[in-house]
C-alpha cells in the first residue's frame, strides 16, 4: 500500500497545491507505511467548494429518483468491496478486523435505509384561512455540505454524513481525519466508480486546523456536519456563526452507567466491559464511568476485572486479538497520563493499567484494558474524556446520588442504567441529561434511530435515521392564490 494518494476534486484525482505530502503508518506496526497523503492548503478547499457549488446547480434540481440511481450503484460497489475496505480500515485505524468489517457492513444497511428517505422528503400542507389560497412547506437542499469526520470510525461516520446529504440533493466536500486518510480514499474510489457527476462529492486531505477552518469560513458552505472533540466543535461553531452556516456537531462524552438494585451483576459486567473496551475504548459512546451503589460495588468490580482477563492485545489482523493498539503515541501518552494521575489522586488500579512492551508491542502503543476503583466524582479521570481503554468505578450511597453524579458532567451523549427497579428506570429515563439513554444494556445503537447528544456533546439536529432531513434540508413555505 505504499502509494502516493491525491485529493478528489470535481471527479479527478488532484495533487495538492502545496506539492507536499505526509506519511501515514499502521498503528499496530509503525514500520508499515500505508501511503503518502496530501498536505492540502486553504486554496485546495476553496477549489473543492467551488466545484461542489457548481455541481449543486444541477444535482440539487435532479429528481430524487434519478439521484437514487447513482446511489444504488454506490451501495452495490460498497457491498462488493466490504472485505477490502475492512482490511484497509483495520491496518489504518488499529481496531480488530471483526470490528473493522462491521463498518462497511453497517454502512450498506444504513445506505439502503437512506435511499428510501429520498422518496420521503415530505413537507407540510395546511388549510389556509383565506379563500382560494393553498399553504404548503416543501423541503429544499441546503447546497454545499462540509463533512468533517473522525478517525475512530473512519468509514461508517463519513457514510452517515455524505449519504443523507446526497439523498437530499446537496453536494459534499469531505475532509477525512488526518490519521485515517486511506479510508477516505477508499470511499472516494467507490463514488468515482459509481459514476457520480463531477463535483457532487469531493475530498480534501490535510491538517484539521487548516482544512476545518477553511471549510467553516467559506460562505459557499451552507452546512457543516462534524464529529470530533468538543474543543474543535466549539471552534467550528464559532467560525460558522459568522456566515450563519447551519451546523451539526457530534462531540465528546463521559458516558455513565448507573448500577442500582440489579440482580444479574454478571450480565451487567459483560455489558460494561464490552461498552468500555470495544475499539480500545476509542468510541464517543464508550462507557467510561460506572456509578454503583456501595453494596454492589465490590462484586461488580471483581466480575469486571475477571472478564477483562479474557482480552487479548495485538495486531487487529490476528483473529485471536480482541483489542488493538490506540491510534498513535500521542494518544497513548495522554491515556497513560490519566491512569498515572488517578493513582496520584488516591484511586486504585484494580486491573490493567500498563503499556505493553516487547516484540510486536514495541511497534505500536498498546495499553491494557484498565479498571480504576476508589474514584471520587471530582477526580480528573471521572470528569474528562480519556478516549482509551479506561473504565472508572465510583461508589455512591443512593440512587439520587448516582443520578447527581451522572448528570454532574459537561457532557451528555449516552448513559446506561442497570436496574430491576421500575421506579429507578422511570426516573432515569425522565431525568438523565443525555441524548441517548440505555436501559439494562451497553451503549449499542440502532442504525436507523437518531444519534446525538446534549450539553457539550452535541448541537444541531441529531444524525441518522429520519432526523437527518432536519439538518440536510431547509423548509420553504409557499402560498399560492388561485385566481378565478
Give your account of this protein's structure:
There is one protein chain. The protein is α/β, with parallel strands linked by helices. The protein folds into two domains: 7-251 and 457-480, Aldehyde Dehydrogenase, Chain A, domain 1; 255-439, Aldehyde Dehydrogenase, Chain A, domain 2, CATH 3.40.309. It has 15 helices and 22 strands. It has helices spanning 42-59, 64-80, 82-93, 97-117, 156-167, 181-193, 208-217, 230-240, 265-277, 294-308, 329-344, 380-383, 399-407, 422-431, 468-472, and strands at 7-9, 12-14, 21-26, 29-38, 124-127, 133-141, 144-148, 171-175, 201-203, 221-227, 246-250, 255-259, 287-293, 348-351, 370-373, 390-396, 411-412, 414-418, 436-439, 454-455, 458-459, 473-481. The strands form six sheets. A seven-stranded mixed β-sheet has the order 14-15-16-13-12-18-19, sandwiched between helices. Helix 9 (265-277) links the parallel strand 12 and strand 13. Helix 1 (42-59) packs across helix 7 (208-217), helix 4 (97-117) packs parallel to helix 5 and helix 7 (208-217) packs parallel to helix 8 (230-240). The radius of gyration is 23 Å and the shape is globular. The N and C termini lie far apart (70 Å). The mean pLDDT is 97.
Amino acid at each position: 500500500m505504499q502509494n502516493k494518494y491525491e485529493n478528489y476534486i470535481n471527479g479527478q484525482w488532484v495533487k495538492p497545491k502545496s506539492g507536499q505530502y505526509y506519511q501515514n503508518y499502521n498503528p499496530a506496526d509503525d514500520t508499515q507505511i500505508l501511503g503518502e497523503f496530501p498536505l492540502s492548503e486553504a486554496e485546495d478547499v476553496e477549489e473543492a467548494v467551488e466545484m461542489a457549488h457548481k455541481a449543486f446547480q444541477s444535482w440539487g434540481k435532479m429528481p430524487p429518483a434519478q439521484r437514487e440511481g447513482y446511489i444504488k450503484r454506490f451501495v452495490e460497489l460498497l457491498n462488493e468491496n466490504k472485505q477490502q475496505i475492512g482490511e484497509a480500515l483495520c491496518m489504518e485505524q488499529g481496531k480488530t478486523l471483526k470490528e473493522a468489517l462491521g463498518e462497511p457492513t453497517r454502512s450498506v444497511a444504513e445506505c439502503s435505509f437512506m435511499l428510501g428517505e429520498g422518496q420521503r422528503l415530505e413537507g407540510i400542507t395546511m388549510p389556509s384561512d383565506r379563500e382560494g389560497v393553498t399553504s404548503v412547506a416543501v423541503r429544499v437542499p441546503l447546497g454545499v455540505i462540509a463533512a468533517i469526520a473522525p478517525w475512530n470510525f473512519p468509514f461508517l461516520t463519513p457514510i452517515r454524513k455524505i449519504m443523507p446529504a446526497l439523498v437530499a440533493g446537496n453536494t459534499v466536500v469531505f475532509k477525512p481525519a488526518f490519521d485515517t486518510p486511506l479510508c477516505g480514499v477508499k470511499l472516494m474510489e467507490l463514488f468515482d466508480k459509481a459514476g457520480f457527476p463531477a463535483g457532487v462529492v469531493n475530498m480534501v486531505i490535510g491538517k484539521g486546523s487548516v482544512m476545518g477552518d477553511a471549510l467553516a469560513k467559506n460562505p459557499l458552505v451552507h452546512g457543516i456536519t462534524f464529529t470530533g472533540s468538543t474543543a474543535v466543535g466549539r471552534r467550528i461553531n464559532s467560525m460558522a456563526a459568522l456566515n450563519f452556516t447551519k451546523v451539526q456537531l457530534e462531540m465528546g462524552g463521559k458516558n455513565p452507567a448507573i448500577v442500582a438494585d440489579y440482580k444479574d451483576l454478571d450480565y451487567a459486567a459483560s455489558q460494561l466491559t464490552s461498552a468500555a473496551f470495544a475499539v480500545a475504548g476509542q468510541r464517543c459512546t464508550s462507557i467510561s464511568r460506572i456509578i454503583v451503589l456501595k453494596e454492589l460495588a465490590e462484586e461488580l468490580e471483581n466480575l469486571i476485572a475477571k472478564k477483562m482477563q479474557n482480552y487479548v492485545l495485538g495486531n487487529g489482523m490476528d483473529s485471536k486479538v480482541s483489542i488493538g493498539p490506540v491510534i498513535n503515541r500521542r494518544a497513548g501518552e495522554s491515556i497513560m497520563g490519566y491512569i498515572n494521575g488517578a493513582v496520584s489522586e488516591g484511586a486504585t488500579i484494580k486491573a490493567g493499567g500498563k503499556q505493553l512492551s516487547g516484540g510486536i508491542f514495541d511497534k505500536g502503543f498498546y495499553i491494557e484494558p484498565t479498571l480504576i476503583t476508589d474514584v471520587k466524582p471530582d477526580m480528573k479521570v471521572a470528569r474528562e474524556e480519556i478516549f482509551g481503554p479506561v473504565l472508572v468505578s465510583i461508589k455512591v450511597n443512593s440512587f439520587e446520588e448516582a443520578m447527581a453524579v451522572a448528570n454532574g458532567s459537561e457532557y451528555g451523549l449516552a448513559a446506561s442504567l442497570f436496574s430491576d427497579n421500575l421506579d429507578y428506570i422511570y426516573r432515569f429515563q425522565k431525568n438523565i441529561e443525555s441524548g441517548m439513554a440505555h436501559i439494562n444494556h451497553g451503549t449499542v445503537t440502532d442504525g436507523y434511530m437518531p444519534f446525538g447528544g446534549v450539553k457539550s456533546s452535541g448541537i444541531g439536529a441529531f444524525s441518522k435515521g429520519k432526523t437527518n432531513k432536519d439538518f440536510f434540508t431547509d423548509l420553504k413555505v409557499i402560498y399560492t392564490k388561485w385566481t378565478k
